[in-house]
Fold this sequence. Notes:
The protein has 283 residues and is of the alpha+beta class. Helices cover 30% and strands 24% of the residues. The chain has 11 helices and 13 strands.
Amino acid sequence: MIRHFVPASLEEALRIINKNNCYIMSGGTDLMVQKHVSTGLLPNFDRSVLYVMGLKELDYIKNESDGSVSIGATTRFVDIEKSELVPEIYKKVIREIASPNIRNMATMTGNIANASPAGDSIVPLVLNDAYVVLSSLNGERKVPVKDFVLGVRKTDRKNEEIITKIVLLPQNLKYFYRKVGSRKAESITKVSFLGAYRIENNIIKDFRVAFGSVSIKVVRNLEVENKYKNIKASELNIDEVIKDYSPLVTPITDQRSNKEYRHKVAMNLLRKFLEEIKGGQNE
């Protein structure tokens, strides 16, 4: 029997999820679309639903003593975008997600849990080493976002767990972000690119690259990144970097675009990012 649970507290929610295999719904902007059947018909849920949007104890943004920023699981995109505590790169990405009405309901946690290759907010989370905290009656565990998303609609969440917060780690980086879609607004991503770097006295001290919508999960490769750290920015070999990343970008052809186009765009964005690094060698 399909049941609908509306807990009054996180503790109650954890007791419910411990006994029932449920979908967890916050804003519902992804889940309701997935379960949509036809106009005029109710969504087709094949198991019970736990509604957590009303849990005020999960709706917050706060600084932590170690300099990180915690975002509660039910905090909406619109509130993250407005917060002075959230780094600007996340706000930049959020502004290009869907429409204002969607951002007024959707959550970053939902974007992660949905585990879509086109999940825009997952890209900066992976690039910046953010992690999620999962809670159950047995306690908490921390999982980096890059390890939490396993593939298309697949995550490392156990049935008895609820994502209770996202933790953003402090960074000292310059960013280059581009999203490519069919139009300027309300567009599902064809390709997204986020690069980050820090240069000191012409030496690349930090170098990071992440691609979205070009594989089953966000593409980031630490081995390639480390190869280009601690070298002179002026000596960065752009063609060599592109050669390293080219085989890692493996998009598919779907109704929005073809794989050849996606790959070419991804490499073009990477080239623009690398040109910016070379241009900032005197920072």
